[in-house]
Amino acid sequence: MRVLLVEDDLAAVGEITQIMRGAGFTVDHVQAGEEAVEMLRHYDYDLAVLELMLPDIEGYEVVRRARAARVTTPIVVLSGLTRPQAKVKAFSVGADDYLTKPFDPDELVARMQAILRRSKGFSEPTLRVGALRLSLDSREVMVNDVPVHLTGKEYAILELLVLRKGMVLTKDAFLNHLYGGMDEPEMKIIDVFICKLRKKLQAAGAGNLITTVWGRGYMLREQLQRMDMEEQPVVQKEREQVVAA
After folding, report:
1. OmpR/PhoB-type domain spans which residues (predicted)?
2. Distance between CA atoms of 195 and 189, rounded to whole angstroms?
3. pLDDT per residue of the chain (245 residues) written in tens, 0 to 9
4. Can you name the residues that pair with 75 across neighbouring β-strands?
5. What is the pTM of this model?
């Protein structure tokens, strides 16, 4: 999942970024409130973590402007302000959670994961799609109670597909999710990742959960009885690319 961290204390940035990346998040960082508003308006983040005391505008104003622009990204305030009035004001302008500094790393990750689940329509940390079971907390994938061993990139792709089940995701969306706009490889690498992921899931007995939507991208369905005829050449091409690689 991709997170925007809004924090002007560089020492705190290093610590928080390390915690988030250790939990499997892709992190973008900005120091100023104005920049945070622009990033939230123009990029599709799964979550934002925000300090209230920023060098240009207050974090309250960041939340207010984002909500006024109809940005629905969940926002967690992580601030040194501990008084109740600060928390009340943050919630009143549209924040989703509030955690004070100093904080416990495990609690921060747990709160982020809980908000992400709720924002995607899930109430439990384990997500189920047919025989597939994916744990957001442990990053484990099971099919019929048998572990499926995935690489970090394969897991990140599957996690995104499961969280946005039924939605068509473009290759740009996958690249953005995996690399956060930095050092992105060629777009065809997504076809390779998807093909390898499909093979592992099918070998484990999960069936054809991931389908190609011609000219648009990929999506995950609850059940896929058969593959559309227009999708067959695309999947065959993916297999050829993997063999060639």
Report:
1. 124-222
2. 10
3. 789 999 999 999 999 999 998 888 889 999 999 999 999 998 889 899 999 999 999 999 999 999 999 999 999 999 999 999 999 999 999 999 999 999 999 999 999 988 988 887 776 778 888 889 998 878 889 998 889 999 988 998 998 898 888 889 998 888 877 776 556 677 889 999 999 999 999 888 887 788 888 888 999 876 543 334 334 444 444 444 444 44
4. 48
5. 0.68
What would the 3-class secondary structure string for the chain be? CEEEEECCCHHHHHHHHHHHHHCCCEEEEECCHHHHHHHHHHCCCCEEEECCCCCCCCHHHHHHHHHHCCCCCCEEEEECCCCHHHHHHHHHHCCCEEEECCCCHHHHHHHHHHHHHHHCCCCCCEEEECCEEEECCCCCEEECCEECCCCHHHHHHHHHHHHCCCCCECHHHHHHHHHCCCCCCCCHHHHHHHHHHHHHHHHHCCCCCEEEECCCEEEECCCCCCCCHHHHHHHHHHHHHHHHC
In this structure, is the dihedral angle defined by the CA atoms of residues 53, 54, 58 and 63, taken in order, positive or negative? negative
